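Continuing the batch. This is chain 6 of the set; chains 1 through 5 are on the previous pages. Same settings as before, nothing changed between runs. Recording input and output for traceability.
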Amino acid sequence: MAKPKVALYWAASCGGCDIGLLEIGENLLKLIEAVDIVFWPVAIDVKYKDVEAMEDGSIDVCLFNGAIRSSEQEHIAKLLRAKSKVMIAYGACAYQGGIPGLANMYNREMIMERAYLETPSTENPDKVLPQTSYQAPEGELTLPLLFDTVKTLAQTVKVEYIIPGCPPEAQTTWMALEALITGQMPPVGTVITGNAKAVCNECPRKRDVKKVKKFYRTYEIDPDPEICLLEQGLPCAGIATKGGCDARCPKAGMPCTGCYGPVDGVIDQGAHFMNAIASVIDSNDPNEIGKIIADIRDPAGTFYRYSLPDSILRRARV
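Output for chain 6:
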């Protein structure tokens, strides 16, 4: 019997998802034995033209990591969608936009000016900016168009499954791959994790329903190793985030940042997290509440670190 054909691709992301795949360890040998990897640019020498030559639907499963922020990424997402029976959004960037999605606080022109003109380390007296095409003596050179708005994979093409995480933990990745190998994939639309409840349900820290008068950045305090981080004034998104990661960050004394996405039934993860923050503030005085909230220095990066493109807000008006 022919092995399932698998494709993997890296769009707008840091590359951590490809490393996350390698973290399945010796199970990688089981994967290689069970499937035929036909496209994986970071690991094998396969070109876009090779994919274009494949028959539509000839790839059984595509694990696509990264958000969509350029014309090239959009083109490849649509190409792999046409060639694949099943499309999986692999990791937080493909799922909700991820860290690249915070670019939606700005527009293309603002990003280009910051990157190529304004940064202290940039020396660009002629104010040269990247162009989508340039006529060189050797011929026309082209670059992909950077979009104004970062999109999720599901905002671009149909997606059957989601594997969350930044990057997905090894046990989450292997859970999905093992289901693929055995032919026991869950119902279409499933967010594949080991725990559909919140990260708090996996966290051993004690919750005493304490109220806080001040929020801290992680370097400002040495938290009690046994007490809920949120109740110690560290903005921890565990209450608003789907579990399956074994609460590794809170167990290590670092607040959950929300990379596994929203708990079931939540439309906007950031709004849900804000509600949790509001519930622990120890004051009824509007002025004092304002001062306490002001301790959260980066609201967009705190509440929508991974989910801005997938939120109700989606982007800033600029």
